[in-house]
Amino acid sequence: MNKRSSWSLPYLVFLILFVVLPLILIAVYAFQDSQGHFSFQNFVHFAQQPEAVSTFLYSIEIALITTILCIALGYPAAYILSTPSLNRSAVTIILFILPMWVNMLVRTLATVALFDFIHIPLGEGALIFGMVYNFLPFMIYPIYNTLLKMDNSYIEAAEDLGASPSQVFWKVTLPLSMPGVWSGVLMVFMPTISTFAISELLTMNKVKLFGTVIQENINNGLWNYGSALGLIMLVIIGITTAITNGKDKMDAEKGGII
Questions:
Q1: Closest Cα partner for 185 from 257, 248, 109?
Q2: Distance between CA atoms of residues 86 and 208, nearest Å
Q3: H-helix or E-strand containing 11?
Q4: How many C-beta atoms surround the C-beta of residue 179 within 10 A?
Q5: For 212-240, what is each residue's pLDDT tens digit?
Q6: Chain segment 113-133, per-residue pLDDT in tens
């Protein structure tokens, strides 16, 4: 116990029990039929179900729309918060943090009540609004932290060389902040594509996302098919993570400046 590595043992046990083991179980159930035999039947069944495939593609579409909107709204907010000349008070930063102190389901229920109060029908528009509202802080803060830690000497050097404010932003600030953007994309896209509670509440279960389909199959006792759908979603998330990490490495190798 005197070795530093011994202190990581509880985390290793936790990782095995609650991360690795569940993933193994999902993979095992996904490649089994109802009799417990090895089979690709679950994946073939998914491919032969037009409704399930369309729901999967629709979930990716909603996740992409949500992520793009979060970037469009989150980057200017993060830029303002990280620029002393534009933001002189720490209170504004706290205001962005406050919603994260409230449970996501409570925030979603409040959104439902708000739409009901102003007589706006629930549906796809309400779903996208709720997604952006819930996940926007997860886009703002990675970008904000990246901008805050940025070395201002690059900006000063660009200004000394005669670059205009717009050129400084597009050639220096934006490229250097891309690691934060990719982190935000990862933190928004992954939970958006797998969520089901938000879609159920904000559409009165009229719009189904892929997470809802997985939940319904698990609740109905179709563990094998539900696990196969979950594995498909994990593969998509893994691909997204790999692409994001690859972008981060490319930005690091290039020094973040185009």
A1: 248
A2: 41
A3: helix 9-15
A4: 20
A5: 899 889 889 889 999 999 999 888 888 87
A6: 999 999 988 989 999 999 999
Q: Please give the model's pTM, rounded to 2 decimal places.
A: 0.84
In angstroms, the Cα distances linking 193 to 29, 60, 200, 213, 253 are 22, 6, 14, 12, 30
* Domains of the chain in sequence order: 50-254 (1.10.3720.10)
User: What is the per-residue pLDDT across 14-32, written as a single tens digit (0 to 9) for each?
Assistant: 999 998 999 999 999 999 9
Round to whole Å and give the CA distance between 75 and 58: 25
Which segments of 48-151 does DSSP mark as H helices, in order? Answer: 50-82, 91-97, 104-117, 124-148
Are the C-beta atoms of residues 132 and 111 closer than 8 Å to each other? no
* Phi, psi dihedrals of residue 49, rounded to the nearest 5°: -105, 100
